[in-house]
Amino acid sequence: MNEQPAYRADLRIDVDAIRHNVAVLSGSARESGARTMVVVKSDGYGHGAMTVARAALESGADALGVAAIDEALRLREAGITAPVLCWLYAHGDDFAPAVAADVELSASSVDCLERIAAAARRVGRTARVHLKIDTGLHRNGCPEDEWPDLVSAAVRAQADGDVRVVAVWSHLACADEVGHPSIDRQAARFQRAYERARAAGLDPIRHLANSAAVLTRPDLHFEMVRPGIAVYGLDPVPQHGDHGLRPAMTFRSSVTMTKRVEPGESVSYGQTWTAERAANLALVPVGYADGVPRTLSGRLEVWLAGKRRPVVGRVCMDQIVVHCGDDVVREGEEVVLFGPGDRGEPTAAEWADELGTIHYEVVTGMYRPRVTRTAVDVPVAAEAL
Ligand SMILES: Cc1ncc(COP(=O)(O)O)c(C=O)c1O
User: Fold this and answer.
1) How far is the C-alpha of 283 from the C-alpha of 381, rounded, in Å?
2) Which of 240, 126, 233 is nearest to 180 (CA)?
3) Whose CA is nearest to atom 6 of ligand 1?
4) DSSP 3-state assignment of 357?
5) Which residues are annotated as a binding site?
6) pLDDT tens column, 316-325
7) According to the model, what pLDDT value does residue 28 have?
8) Domain Alanine racemase C-terminal, which positions (predicted)?
9) Domains of the chain, each with CATH number or no CATH
Protein backbone atom coordinates (compact mmCIF):
# COMPACT_ATOMS: atom_id res chain seq x y z
CA MET A 1 0.00 0.00 0.00
CA ASN A 2 1.23 3.46 -0.87
CA GLU A 3 2.15 5.72 2.06
CA GLN A 4 0.11 8.93 2.20
CA PRO A 5 2.33 11.83 1.13
CA ALA A 6 3.38 13.81 4.18
CA TYR A 7 2.33 17.43 3.89
CA ARG A 8 4.16 20.15 5.75
CA ALA A 9 1.56 22.87 5.33
CA ASP A 10 -0.91 22.37 2.52
CA LEU A 11 -4.21 23.83 1.43
CA ARG A 12 -6.31 21.19 -0.27
CA ILE A 13 -8.84 22.79 -2.58
CA ASP A 14 -11.82 20.59 -3.40
CA VAL A 15 -12.68 21.61 -6.96
CA ASP A 16 -15.81 19.50 -7.00
CA ALA A 17 -17.09 21.36 -3.93
CA ILE A 18 -16.64 24.63 -5.80
CA ARG A 19 -18.55 23.25 -8.76
CA HIS A 20 -21.30 22.04 -6.45
CA ASN A 21 -21.59 25.43 -4.72
CA VAL A 22 -21.67 27.33 -8.01
CA ALA A 23 -24.37 24.97 -9.28
CA VAL A 24 -26.43 25.65 -6.13
CA LEU A 25 -26.02 29.43 -6.42
CA SER A 26 -26.43 29.75 -10.17
CA GLY A 27 -29.40 27.36 -10.04
CA SER A 28 -31.11 29.62 -7.55
CA ALA A 29 -30.28 32.69 -9.67
CA ARG A 30 -31.59 31.00 -12.78
CA GLU A 31 -34.94 30.38 -11.07
CA SER A 32 -35.20 34.19 -10.86
CA GLY A 33 -34.07 34.58 -14.47
CA ALA A 34 -30.67 35.90 -13.34
CA ARG A 35 -27.15 35.15 -14.49
CA THR A 36 -24.24 34.60 -12.09
CA MET A 37 -20.99 36.51 -11.74
CA VAL A 38 -18.65 34.54 -9.47
CA VAL A 39 -16.33 36.73 -7.40
CA VAL A 40 -12.73 35.48 -7.58
CA LYS A 41 -10.95 38.52 -6.16
CA SER A 42 -8.02 38.12 -3.79
CA ASP A 43 -6.87 34.96 -5.54
CA GLY A 44 -10.30 33.37 -5.28
CA TYR A 45 -10.58 34.18 -1.55
CA GLY A 46 -7.29 32.33 -1.13
CA HIS A 47 -8.40 29.22 -3.06
CA GLY A 48 -6.62 30.04 -6.35
CA ALA A 49 -8.36 32.37 -8.80
CA MET A 50 -7.70 30.31 -11.94
CA THR A 51 -8.83 27.02 -10.37
CA VAL A 52 -12.00 28.64 -9.07
CA ALA A 53 -12.68 30.58 -12.28
CA ARG A 54 -12.44 27.47 -14.43
CA ALA A 55 -14.54 25.36 -12.05
CA ALA A 56 -17.14 28.13 -11.79
CA LEU A 57 -17.45 28.60 -15.55
CA GLU A 58 -17.88 24.82 -15.96
CA SER A 59 -20.73 24.68 -13.50
CA GLY A 60 -23.06 27.59 -14.16
CA ALA A 61 -21.18 30.88 -13.81
CA ASP A 62 -21.61 33.36 -16.66
CA ALA A 63 -19.03 35.95 -15.60
CA LEU A 64 -16.28 36.64 -13.09
CA GLY A 65 -15.72 39.58 -10.75
CA VAL A 66 -12.46 40.91 -9.31
CA ALA A 67 -11.38 44.00 -7.41
CA ALA A 68 -8.09 44.91 -9.11
CA ILE A 69 -7.14 45.38 -12.77
CA ASP A 70 -4.13 43.07 -12.36
CA GLU A 71 -6.42 40.32 -11.14
CA ALA A 72 -8.57 40.70 -14.25
CA LEU A 73 -5.58 40.72 -16.59
CA ARG A 74 -4.22 37.54 -15.01
CA LEU A 75 -7.51 35.78 -15.77
CA ARG A 76 -7.21 36.87 -19.40
CA GLU A 77 -3.54 35.79 -19.55
CA ALA A 78 -4.65 32.37 -18.30
CA GLY A 79 -6.93 32.11 -21.34
CA ILE A 80 -10.25 32.88 -19.67
CA THR A 81 -12.53 34.55 -22.20
CA ALA A 82 -15.73 34.89 -20.13
CA PRO A 83 -16.88 38.40 -19.14
CA VAL A 84 -14.77 39.79 -16.27
CA LEU A 85 -15.76 42.84 -14.24
CA CYS A 86 -13.19 44.83 -12.29
CA TRP A 87 -14.32 47.44 -9.77
CA LEU A 88 -11.60 49.00 -7.64
CA TYR A 89 -8.65 51.08 -8.77
CA ALA A 90 -5.54 52.64 -7.37
CA HIS A 91 -5.22 56.35 -8.02
CA GLY A 92 -3.96 56.87 -11.57
CA ASP A 93 -4.49 53.27 -12.73
CA ASP A 94 -4.20 52.95 -16.51
CA PHE A 95 -7.43 51.53 -17.94
CA ALA A 96 -6.04 50.90 -21.44
CA PRO A 97 -4.71 47.36 -20.80
CA ALA A 98 -8.05 46.39 -19.26
CA VAL A 99 -10.06 47.80 -22.18
CA ALA A 100 -7.70 46.13 -24.64
CA ALA A 101 -8.23 42.81 -22.84
CA ASP A 102 -12.02 43.24 -22.94
CA VAL A 103 -12.25 43.59 -19.16
CA GLU A 104 -15.46 45.31 -18.07
CA LEU A 105 -14.91 48.29 -15.80
CA SER A 106 -16.92 49.86 -13.02
CA ALA A 107 -17.30 53.64 -12.97
CA SER A 108 -18.32 55.51 -9.82
CA SER A 109 -17.64 59.09 -10.96
CA VAL A 110 -17.65 61.27 -14.07
CA ASP A 111 -13.87 61.55 -13.83
CA CYS A 112 -13.46 57.78 -13.77
CA LEU A 113 -15.87 57.35 -16.68
CA GLU A 114 -14.02 59.95 -18.74
CA ARG A 115 -10.69 58.23 -18.05
CA ILE A 116 -12.17 54.91 -19.17
CA ALA A 117 -13.56 56.60 -22.32
CA ALA A 118 -10.17 58.16 -23.05
CA ALA A 119 -8.50 54.76 -22.65
CA ALA A 120 -11.07 53.25 -25.01
CA ARG A 121 -10.28 55.88 -27.67
CA ARG A 122 -6.56 55.18 -27.30
CA VAL A 123 -7.07 51.43 -27.59
CA GLY A 124 -9.60 51.78 -30.39
CA ARG A 125 -12.38 49.73 -28.88
CA THR A 126 -15.57 50.35 -26.91
CA ALA A 127 -15.22 49.88 -23.15
CA ARG A 128 -17.96 47.92 -21.41
CA VAL A 129 -18.89 49.85 -18.28
CA HIS A 130 -20.92 49.09 -15.14
CA LEU A 131 -22.13 52.28 -13.41
CA LYS A 132 -21.94 51.86 -9.64
CA ILE A 133 -24.40 53.70 -7.42
CA ASP A 134 -23.65 54.11 -3.72
CA THR A 135 -26.89 53.02 -2.06
CA GLY A 136 -25.64 53.21 1.53
CA LEU A 137 -22.37 51.32 1.96
CA HIS A 138 -20.45 54.55 1.44
CA ARG A 139 -17.26 52.98 0.12
CA ASN A 140 -16.90 53.29 -3.65
CA GLY A 141 -19.99 53.91 -5.77
CA CYS A 142 -21.39 57.19 -7.02
CA PRO A 143 -23.13 59.35 -4.40
CA GLU A 144 -26.83 59.76 -5.20
CA ASP A 145 -26.56 63.51 -5.81
CA GLU A 146 -23.83 62.96 -8.45
CA TRP A 147 -25.70 60.13 -10.19
CA PRO A 148 -27.56 62.33 -12.74
CA ASP A 149 -24.22 63.79 -13.90
CA LEU A 150 -22.65 60.33 -14.16
CA VAL A 151 -25.62 59.04 -16.15
CA SER A 152 -25.47 62.07 -18.52
CA ALA A 153 -21.74 61.61 -19.03
CA ALA A 154 -22.33 57.91 -19.73
CA VAL A 155 -25.05 58.71 -22.29
CA ARG A 156 -22.63 61.07 -24.09
CA ALA A 157 -19.73 58.61 -23.99
CA GLN A 158 -22.01 55.86 -25.28
CA ALA A 159 -23.23 58.08 -28.12
CA ASP A 160 -19.58 58.75 -29.00
CA GLY A 161 -18.95 55.00 -29.16
CA ASP A 162 -16.35 55.10 -26.40
CA VAL A 163 -18.31 53.10 -23.84
CA ARG A 164 -21.25 50.76 -23.69
CA VAL A 165 -23.13 50.87 -20.38
CA VAL A 166 -23.91 47.24 -19.65
CA ALA A 167 -25.04 47.44 -16.03
CA VAL A 168 -26.07 49.52 -13.05
CA TRP A 169 -24.89 47.97 -9.85
CA SER A 170 -24.36 48.42 -6.12
CA HIS A 171 -23.27 46.48 -3.03
CA LEU A 172 -25.18 45.71 0.17
CA ALA A 173 -23.94 46.59 3.64
CA CYS A 174 -25.90 44.14 5.83
CA ALA A 175 -27.16 41.34 3.60
CA ASP A 176 -25.86 38.77 6.11
CA GLU A 177 -28.20 40.18 8.77
CA VAL A 178 -31.40 38.73 7.38
CA GLY A 179 -34.23 41.27 7.61
CA HIS A 180 -31.94 44.23 8.33
CA PRO A 181 -33.86 47.41 7.36
CA SER A 182 -30.91 48.79 5.37
CA ILE A 183 -31.38 46.05 2.76
CA ASP A 184 -34.74 47.35 1.57
CA ARG A 185 -33.54 50.94 1.86
CA GLN A 186 -30.56 50.16 -0.38
CA ALA A 187 -32.79 48.23 -2.80
CA ALA A 188 -35.14 51.23 -3.13
CA ARG A 189 -32.24 53.61 -3.84
CA PHE A 190 -30.86 51.09 -6.30
CA GLN A 191 -34.15 50.91 -8.16
CA ARG A 192 -34.35 54.73 -8.34
CA ALA A 193 -30.86 54.94 -9.82
CA TYR A 194 -31.66 52.23 -12.35
CA GLU A 195 -34.86 53.98 -13.43
CA ARG A 196 -32.97 57.24 -13.84
CA ALA A 197 -30.46 55.48 -16.12
CA ARG A 198 -33.25 53.96 -18.20
CA ALA A 199 -35.09 57.28 -18.42
CA ALA A 200 -31.87 58.77 -19.85
CA GLY A 201 -31.92 56.18 -22.61
CA LEU A 202 -29.52 53.55 -21.23
CA ASP A 203 -30.45 49.87 -21.24
CA PRO A 204 -28.38 48.30 -18.47
CA ILE A 205 -28.86 45.10 -16.50
CA ARG A 206 -28.83 45.29 -12.67
CA HIS A 207 -26.70 43.43 -10.13
CA LEU A 208 -26.78 43.87 -6.38
CA ALA A 209 -26.85 40.50 -4.59
CA ASN A 210 -23.80 39.10 -2.80
CA SER A 211 -23.90 35.53 -1.43
CA ALA A 212 -26.15 36.36 1.51
CA ALA A 213 -28.68 38.07 -0.76
CA VAL A 214 -28.50 35.24 -3.30
CA LEU A 215 -29.44 32.82 -0.52
CA THR A 216 -32.07 34.92 1.25
CA ARG A 217 -33.47 37.56 -1.14
CA PRO A 218 -34.53 36.13 -4.51
CA ASP A 219 -36.43 39.38 -5.08
CA LEU A 220 -33.02 41.10 -5.31
CA HIS A 221 -31.49 38.75 -7.88
CA PHE A 222 -32.44 41.12 -10.75
CA GLU A 223 -30.62 40.18 -13.98
CA MET A 224 -27.36 39.05 -12.36
CA VAL A 225 -26.06 37.99 -8.94
CA ARG A 226 -22.54 38.34 -7.56
CA PRO A 227 -21.73 35.63 -4.99
CA GLY A 228 -18.29 35.25 -3.47
CA ILE A 229 -17.98 33.50 -0.11
CA ALA A 230 -20.72 30.91 -0.75
CA VAL A 231 -18.85 29.75 -3.87
CA TYR A 232 -16.13 28.61 -1.46
CA GLY A 233 -18.70 26.72 0.61
CA LEU A 234 -18.74 29.11 3.55
CA ASP A 235 -22.23 30.19 4.52
CA PRO A 236 -22.68 33.89 5.33
CA VAL A 237 -26.18 33.24 6.75
CA PRO A 238 -26.07 29.91 8.63
CA GLN A 239 -28.86 31.22 10.87
CA HIS A 240 -31.11 31.11 7.80
CA GLY A 241 -30.91 27.30 7.48
CA ASP A 242 -28.73 24.77 5.71
CA HIS A 243 -28.01 25.87 2.15
CA GLY A 244 -26.16 22.68 1.26
CA LEU A 245 -22.82 24.38 0.62
CA ARG A 246 -19.57 22.39 0.80
CA PRO A 247 -16.46 24.14 2.17
CA ALA A 248 -13.71 23.80 -0.43
CA MET A 249 -10.58 24.47 1.63
CA THR A 250 -8.86 22.00 3.95
CA PHE A 251 -5.70 23.05 5.80
CA ARG A 252 -3.56 20.05 6.54
CA SER A 253 -0.15 19.01 7.75
CA SER A 254 1.28 15.79 9.13
CA VAL A 255 3.04 14.44 12.17
CA THR A 256 6.79 14.83 11.88
CA MET A 257 7.88 13.41 15.28
CA THR A 258 6.32 11.79 18.34
CA LYS A 259 7.49 11.60 21.92
CA ARG A 260 6.26 10.78 25.40
CA VAL A 261 6.44 13.31 28.23
CA GLU A 262 6.40 12.58 31.93
CA PRO A 263 4.14 14.32 34.47
CA GLY A 264 5.45 17.78 35.37
CA GLU A 265 7.11 18.37 31.99
CA SER A 266 6.04 21.47 30.05
CA VAL A 267 5.63 22.16 26.34
CA SER A 268 6.69 25.03 24.06
CA TYR A 269 7.80 28.62 24.71
CA GLY A 270 6.84 30.06 28.08
CA GLN A 271 6.01 26.59 29.39
CA THR A 272 2.34 27.56 29.49
CA TRP A 273 1.16 23.93 29.55
CA THR A 274 2.41 21.22 31.87
CA ALA A 275 1.57 17.52 31.66
CA GLU A 276 -0.44 16.29 34.66
CA ARG A 277 0.13 12.71 33.64
CA ALA A 278 2.39 11.00 31.12
CA ALA A 279 1.25 11.57 27.55
CA ASN A 280 2.16 11.01 23.93
CA LEU A 281 2.81 14.19 21.97
CA ALA A 282 2.85 14.70 18.20
CA LEU A 283 4.94 17.45 16.67
CA VAL A 284 3.34 19.10 13.60
CA PRO A 285 5.50 21.37 11.44
CA VAL A 286 3.11 24.32 10.99
CA GLY A 287 3.02 27.53 12.95
CA TYR A 288 2.03 31.14 12.80
CA ALA A 289 4.23 31.68 9.73
CA ASP A 290 1.90 29.24 8.00
CA GLY A 291 -1.30 30.90 9.13
CA VAL A 292 -1.94 29.16 12.48
CA PRO A 293 -2.80 32.15 14.67
CA ARG A 294 -0.61 32.32 17.77
CA THR A 295 -3.54 33.86 19.59
CA LEU A 296 -5.24 30.45 19.36
CA SER A 297 -2.55 28.95 21.66
CA GLY A 298 -4.37 26.84 24.25
CA ARG A 299 -7.65 26.97 22.25
CA LEU A 300 -6.78 25.06 19.10
CA GLU A 301 -7.81 21.52 18.21
CA VAL A 302 -6.80 19.42 15.22
CA TRP A 303 -8.12 16.23 13.65
CA LEU A 304 -5.54 13.47 13.99
CA ALA A 305 -5.87 9.69 13.85
CA GLY A 306 -9.65 9.63 13.92
CA LYS A 307 -10.42 12.26 16.52
CA ARG A 308 -10.08 15.85 17.60
CA ARG A 309 -7.11 16.47 19.82
CA PRO A 310 -5.95 19.61 21.61
CA VAL A 311 -2.84 21.57 20.68
CA VAL A 312 -0.91 22.19 23.89
CA GLY A 313 1.46 25.01 24.72
CA ARG A 314 2.10 28.00 22.52
CA VAL A 315 1.76 28.03 18.74
CA CYS A 316 5.30 28.76 17.48
CA MET A 317 6.46 30.22 14.16
CA ASP A 318 6.97 26.76 12.62
CA GLN A 319 5.53 24.15 14.98
CA ILE A 320 2.61 23.06 17.12
CA VAL A 321 2.41 20.16 19.56
CA VAL A 322 -0.66 17.92 19.72
CA HIS A 323 -1.66 16.04 22.87
CA CYS A 324 -2.50 12.43 22.06
CA GLY A 325 -3.07 11.03 25.55
CA ASP A 326 -2.10 7.38 25.52
CA ASP A 327 -2.87 6.95 21.83
CA VAL A 328 0.07 6.04 19.64
CA VAL A 329 0.09 8.06 16.41
CA ARG A 330 2.41 7.47 13.49
CA GLU A 331 4.93 9.88 12.04
CA GLY A 332 3.65 10.98 8.64
CA GLU A 333 0.02 10.71 9.71
CA GLU A 334 -2.27 13.44 8.33
CA VAL A 335 -3.25 16.31 10.62
CA VAL A 336 -6.25 18.43 9.62
CA LEU A 337 -6.25 21.93 11.11
CA PHE A 338 -9.55 22.83 9.48
CA GLY A 339 -11.73 21.39 6.76
CA PRO A 340 -15.34 20.96 5.75
CA GLY A 341 -16.17 19.43 9.14
CA ASP A 342 -17.59 16.19 7.69
CA ARG A 343 -15.36 13.97 9.80
CA GLY A 344 -15.61 16.11 12.89
CA GLU A 345 -12.55 18.21 12.16
CA PRO A 346 -12.53 21.94 13.05
CA THR A 347 -13.84 24.30 10.37
CA ALA A 348 -12.77 27.74 9.13
CA ALA A 349 -15.99 29.07 10.66
CA GLU A 350 -14.93 27.71 14.06
CA TRP A 351 -11.52 29.36 13.71
CA ALA A 352 -13.28 32.61 12.85
CA ASP A 353 -15.51 32.37 15.93
CA GLU A 354 -12.49 31.69 18.16
CA LEU A 355 -10.61 34.57 16.57
CA GLY A 356 -13.51 37.01 16.70
CA THR A 357 -13.50 37.45 12.94
CA ILE A 358 -15.31 36.08 9.86
CA HIS A 359 -14.50 32.95 7.85
CA TYR A 360 -13.77 35.21 4.86
CA GLU A 361 -10.65 36.48 6.61
CA VAL A 362 -9.53 33.01 7.69
CA VAL A 363 -9.53 31.42 4.23
CA THR A 364 -8.33 34.52 2.36
CA GLY A 365 -5.25 34.75 4.58
CA MET A 366 -4.11 31.14 4.41
CA TYR A 367 -2.03 30.98 1.23
CA ARG A 368 1.49 32.07 2.12
CA PRO A 369 5.01 31.56 0.74
CA ARG A 370 5.69 28.36 2.68
CA VAL A 371 2.23 26.87 2.25
CA THR A 372 1.49 24.66 -0.75
CA ARG A 373 -1.90 24.59 -2.41
CA THR A 374 -3.25 21.48 -4.10
CA ALA A 375 -6.38 21.54 -6.22
CA VAL A 376 -8.01 18.13 -5.98
CA ASP A 377 -10.56 17.26 -8.62
CA VAL A 378 -11.83 13.82 -7.79
CA PRO A 379 -14.65 13.35 -10.36
CA VAL A 380 -12.58 14.57 -13.31
CA ALA A 381 -9.64 12.39 -12.25
CA ALA A 382 -12.00 9.43 -12.01
CA GLU A 383 -13.45 10.15 -15.46
CA ALA A 384 -9.96 10.32 -16.92
CA LEU A 385 -9.22 6.73 -15.89
C1 LIG B 1 -18.45 44.41 -4.86
C2 LIG B 1 -18.59 43.03 -4.34
N3 LIG B 1 -19.53 42.22 -4.83
C4 LIG B 1 -19.71 40.97 -4.39
C5 LIG B 1 -18.89 40.47 -3.39
C6 LIG B 1 -19.14 39.08 -2.89
O7 LIG B 1 -19.58 39.13 -1.56
P8 LIG B 1 -19.76 37.78 -0.72
O9 LIG B 1 -18.40 37.20 -0.61
O10 LIG B 1 -20.29 38.25 0.60
O11 LIG B 1 -20.69 36.94 -1.48
C12 LIG B 1 -17.90 41.27 -2.85
C13 LIG B 1 -17.06 40.77 -1.76
O14 LIG B 1 -16.79 41.40 -0.80
C15 LIG B 1 -17.74 42.59 -3.34
O16 LIG B 1 -16.77 43.39 -2.87
Assistant:
1) 33
2) 240
3) 228
4) coil
5) 139, 317
6) 999 999 999 9
7) 98
8) 248-376
9) 15-233 (3.20.20.10), 249-380 (2.40.37.10)
41 catalytic residue (yes or no): yes
Task: Provide the β-strand partners of residue 14.
Answer: 376
Counting atoms of ligand 1 from 1, which one is nearest the CA of 171?
Answer: 1
- List the one residue out of 241, 232, 248, 236 whose CA is nearest residue 212: 236
Q: Do the beta carbons of residue 134 and residue 168 sit within 8 Å? A: no
Using a CB cutoff of 8 Å and minimum separation of 24, what contacts does 78-82 make?
78/50, 78/53, 80/50, 80/53, 80/54, 82/53, 82/57
Known catalytic residue: 259?
no
Give the active site residue among 41, 45, 232, 288.
Answer: 41
Q: What is the pLDDT of residues 92-138, one digit of tens each?
A: 999 999 999 999 999 999 999 999 999 999 999 999 999 999 999 99
Q: Low-confidence residues of the chain, pLDDT below 50?
A: 1-2, 380-385
Q: Would you say 224 and 63 are in contact if contact means Cβ atoms under 8 Å apart?
A: yes
Please tell me the distance between residue 146's alpha carbon and the centre of ligand 1 in angstroms. 24
